[in-house]
Amino acid sequence: MQRLNFYWILLPLLVALSGCALPGARTSVSEISNSAPDRDYPIPRHLRYSFTLQNTHTAMLDKAEFWVYVPVRQTSTQRVAKISASHGYQLVVDKLGNQILHFEFENFPPLASKVIDIQADLFMSDTANPASGGDSTHFLAPERYVEADAPEITALAKTLRAATPIATSKAAYAWVAANLKAENFIPEDRGALYALHNKSGDCTEFMDLFVALSRANGIPARGLGGYVVTENAIVNLPRRRLAFGRCAKIGVDAAAVAVRGHAHHLNASGKSVGKFISVSLLGRRPEGQYELSPQREPGKHTKQ
């Protein structure tokens, strides 16, 4: 079993639940899909991580709530079979396809702590399967950090346009890999235009520019956040102890223990160096989407 270490940043969110129903009964196990591998997703993977929740007050909390993302239900290279946790939860799926576990604890004792252990069983694929479901036009539009309509990006995209969408995507990938210089981790998002102007960035800027070039050429594209694993993995979270504030609510951003972008699961020659497990689909929230969804809007997104 592979043991991974990631450094992360907690994003406490005050999540307004008014007008936002949480469907489904509370459970500790969710059977998401067929529990056997198939032709499209033949490779089994198991992911496990945990959080410690702590009431740091000397008074009892009548109700404490915790939200966290788990691997995306299905992408072109993964299918989730089962999600299980050590405590009961409600599973919410937002309009981007992100899966959120919502935990509630009644009468949380003073100075007490609870450990939430989360496990996911998935099936992976070495090759991309056709995407299905959802409105792909959402992934054609420009948005913050993905400035697909900027003149500089549309001009570059035009020079990379090829006979087929696949050939165009490969040309965009090759251009980004050849022309951008990788920087060390930078906490702030800076976006596709920054990457193009400065010819540099970390993995998120590489991803943003590739997505923007794809969208500028009429190819639906989306950013993903997740883990790179080569086998079954336990993810170590060095700062996993979460203290409840006065609101008694904590949300952990989708990719708080994650590595983002295409560059992390392909090496320079394009060879796969591990399985990329997607924990979040990044992007602007569609109308009416669940409040905790990862949003790349001013003041609401910090790169992990």
Summarize the main sheet: 10 strands, mixed
Which shape, going by the Cα principal axes? globular
Summed up, the helix count is 4
Give the distance, in angstroms, between the N- and C-terminal Cα atoms. 24 Å
How much strand?
Answer: 25-35%
Secondary-structure element series: EEEEEEEHHEHEHEEEEEE
Tell me what the structure shows.
- The protein is of the alpha/beta class and 304 residues long.
- The protein has two domains: 2-18 and 26-127 and 232-261, no CATH class; 141-216, C8orf32 fold (Roll), CATH 3.10.620.
- It is built from four helices and 15 strands.
- It has helices at residues 151-160, 165-179, 191-198, 203-216, and strands spanning 2-5, 27-31, 43-54, 61-70, 78-93, 99-108, 113-124, 181-182, 200-201, 223-229, 233-236, 241-243, 249-251, 259-260, 275-282.
- Strands 1, 2, 3, 4, 5, 6, 7, 11, 12 and 13 form a ten-stranded mixed sheet that branches. Strands 14-10-15 form a three-stranded antiparallel sheet. A two-stranded parallel ribbon has the order 8-9.
- It is globular, with a radius of gyration of 20 Å.
- Residues 2-23, 253-273 and 286-304 have low confidence and may be disordered.
